[in-house]
Amino acid sequence: MKPIGVFMTELTDYTYETTMRAIDTLLLYYPFLEKSTIGTSVMGKEIPVLKIGSGQTQVCYSAAIHANEWITTPVLLQFVQEYAQAVTEGKPLYGADARELYRQVTLYVIPLLNPDGVDLVTGALAEGEYYERAKQIAAAYPQIPFPDGWKANIDGIDLNLQFPAGWELAKEIKAQQGYTSPAPRDYVGEAPLTAPESRALYEFTMSHSFALILTYHTQGEVIYWKYQDLEPAHSRQIAEHFGAVSGYAVEETPYASGNAGYKDWFILQFDRPGYTIEAGYGENPLPIADFPEIYRRNTGILTGGMTEILHFKTTAP
Ligand SMILES: [Zn+2]
Asked: Ligand 1 centre and the CA of 68: distance in Å?
């Protein structure tokens, strides 16, 4: 049996439950995949991670840190499926030797970093204490549609403004924009890493040695690759490769959103290539109908995150 396209044909909103079911299906078809948990959300949902490959070079892809960007979850799941299928059949993966990649790289995929927030936006969470509190938080921001405009975790903390890389500056900038307490978006929290989801990603990253990370967002069809003026070795070349294979623009992060993100912190902490991929175009949440096109545009980046890092490792002086 080969479930090629099992996700692509299931054009459905990706909730926590949908995601966990998809992961179970992947584990069933591809027993060489390993699943574990990086931590739990505010509501106690597990944040899953899939491991594929046995190589020395570690790479990490993550998605849906922002609730209304959940379309990035199936992008990663679909890629895991295609990669695992290529390994199984000994076939190439978008021009790369899948079995060779498997031998040389260990890829960690965290498809759903913000399960509570995603359930809120998709309507899977539409009643109860947490829902009512979120609704109350949102009521103070009538210009942000509810729940469609919700990016934060269920506590109203923006998980991508929680990392210790210019957090104080992010706090200042966001306060000037009116975000000083829990909000559907752009609230940095009381201190860095207070949200359990951000803390889990931080701990997981600290306990590994990732040569490269991709963090998936929507929207804008843009690749951000720098933190301030830091430029890790080969990161520009890899960014340009990503731009070429996707058609996405390669840009420097705008000042107002240029701090306290996961990618920012990764670059600052490790001085290695880290990328925010703003996939798709339109208004968040992008409809699942956009998935096939978004996926098509990103297969080169997802493959390239492994092949490019290997390339520069082997050609390093
Ligand atoms: Zn985002």
From this structure: 8
Sorted by where each begins, the domain ranges of the chain are 16-117+195-315
Nearest-10 Cα torsion for 22, 26, 28, 32: -150
Choose among 9, 32, 6, 34: nearest CA to 21: 6
Residue 19: predicted pLDDT? 95
pLDDT in tens, 231-260: 999 999 999 999 999 999 999 877 777 899
- pLDDT in the model for residue 253: 78
d(CA 89, ligand 1 centre) in Å: 35
Name the CATH architecture for the domain at 16-117+195-315: 3-Layer(aba) Sandwich (3.40)
What torsion, rounded to 10 degrees, do the Cα atoms 179, 183, 185, 189 define?
A: 70
Residue 172 confidence (pLDDT) above 80:
yes
Closest CA to 6 of 80, 81, 98, 111: 81
18-47: buried (b, 16+ CB within 10 Å) or exposed (e) per residue? bbbebbebbeebbeebeeeebbebbbebbb
Q: How far is the CA of 217 from the centre of ligand 1 (A)?
A: 4
For 1, 18, 166, 228, the CA distances from 268, given in Å and listed in that order, are 45, 34, 10, 9
Predicted confidence (pLDDT) per residue in 77-99, tens digit: 999 999 999 999 999 999 999 99
Residue with tokens 């892809």: 61
Q: How many angstroms is it from 279 CA to the middle of ligand 1? A: 10
Dihedrals phi, psi of 95, to nearest 5 degrees: 85, -10
Among this protein's residues, is 278 annotated catalytic?
yes
Q: Tens digits of per-residue pLDDT, 186-195?
A: 999 999 999 9
C-alpha–C-alpha distance, residues 124 and 160, integer Å: 22
Is the pLDDT at 300 greater than 90? The verdict is yes
CA 66 to ligand 1 center in whole angstroms: 5
Choose the catalytic residue: 172, 278, 283, 308.
278
